[in-house]
Design a protein that fits this description.
Number of strands: 0
Oligomer: single chain
Strand content: under 5%
Helix content: 55-70%
Number of domains: 2
Distance between the termini: 43 Å
Shape: elongated
Order of helices and strands: HHHHHHHHHHHHHHH
Structural class: mainly alpha
Radius of gyration: 20 Å
Largest sheet: none
Amino acid sequence: MTHAQASWPTWARLAVPLAIGLLAIGCGDGDDDEVDAQPYIDATVEDLDDDDFPLGEEQAECMATTVVEAVGADRLEDEGIDPEEFGAADSFAELDIELEDDAVEQMGEDIVACDLGGALVEAFAAEVGGKLSDASLECMVDGLDDEELGRALALGFVDGDDPEAQAQVGNAVLAGIATCPDATTELVVHSIEQAGGIKLSGDGQACIADYLEAHPDDAAQVFTDGGANSESIGQQIGLACAEFLAR
């Protein structure tokens, strides 16, 4: 599927460019398909190839299979949707295919099995300007609510423009960040460097880490509530570490 692009003005919008753009399809019983599902899977895998959100071969195959089985290749053929059209679509809504609630729930459970957490976290870190340490990446992945993330991504497959789905995916990822103080510090440092066009010294990074450690409530809120508190918290960090933030 194509990778629907979206802006990233707040952390809550993080998710949709990451995964909601993977999409295409509807509802059905994949296990009983008489139509060969593989062409649909192959078309989906091909369109999941995205430099901004790279998936491993097994992850892409898993995701593609999940989406195809949610609809059923027989239904796709019956409705005149060929593999190329299927792969190019941005959402189920674009194809005028609806999913029952239980099918959406099942898709969310199946998405969890595709182990997308690492790819989501890495893409998020790259978007804010830097690469997380291995320890922070592992911590954030462990902190993800897999069930909530899977449910949110499934809703995104149904309608990629649904703001509720976008917010839910973003919040699921951000909740993982909130459990990892070192990751929060790394991401704040990266975002400050990116926004200010500066390179912080070791002392500057230590100052930010000390501030966040001394103000755990601020640290917990940096990436929550859609980033609503990030500007005011950034101002406080700027005052506390002003000598290190000059260009």
